[in-house]
Fold this protein.
Amino acid sequence: MRLVECKIGPRMSVLGPRKTWADMSFPRKRESISSIFMSSPLRTCGDDIKKNRFIGNINEENKMKKPVVGIIMGSDSDLSIMEETAAMLKKFNIQYEMKILSAHRCPEKTAEYAKNAKKNGIKVIVAGAGGAAHLAGVIAGHTILPVIGVPKESKLSGLDSLLSIVQMPSGVPVATVAIGKAGAINAGILAAQIIAVSDANIAEKLEAFKKELIKKVEKKNKALAKRK
C-alpha cells in the first residue's frame, strides 16, 4: 500500500479525532504503513516537498507490495469519502495508493499520472471529485485502464458532480457509481471485481463477501420476525 504523505504540522493527522481508519484495522506502527499528513491548504500541485504536494512513501516492509489500485481525489476535503474506497480494498487485501490530483489546478500532473499508471502496475483507477468533477474524465482520456468515478456530495446535492462524471462522450467511458459514501464503497468493490477477473484469490474473497451480505439480510429478517 502506497500512501501520500504531506506535512501540516507536528503530529497533526488529516484524520483528526475520527476513528474511521483505525476501525479499518490499519497497522498502527509507522514501520507498517506510511503515516498520512496533509498540508493546509492543499489546493495546488507542485514538486516542492516543503510546500507539501505529493510524497509517495513506501517503507521497507511494503516495497514488494506494489499498489494495483490508484485512489485519486481532487482535494483533501474528499478524503472522508474516498477513505471508504480504501476500506473496501483493505477488506479484500488489495494494495492501493492515494494521491491528490486536480483536473483544473494541475492538469499536467494529472495527465502524467494517468499516462504512467499502467506502466507503474496500476490496474484500476478510482477518482473522486465534487462540483465540476472532471477528474475521472480527464484521467480516462489519458489511459486505457478502467476508471471508476465517485461523485462527491456538493451544494447541489451532488447532482452536478454526478452529471460531470457520468456524461462522458462516446469512446471515453467512466464507470460512475452513486453519490457520496455509498458510491465510494461500491467503487472499492467494483475495483476488486475488475481485478478478480484475473485473480482467483480476490474472486474467492468476493464470494465470501457476497455470503456475508446474505447473512446480514437473514439476520435482519430474524430480528424483524421477533418484533411481531
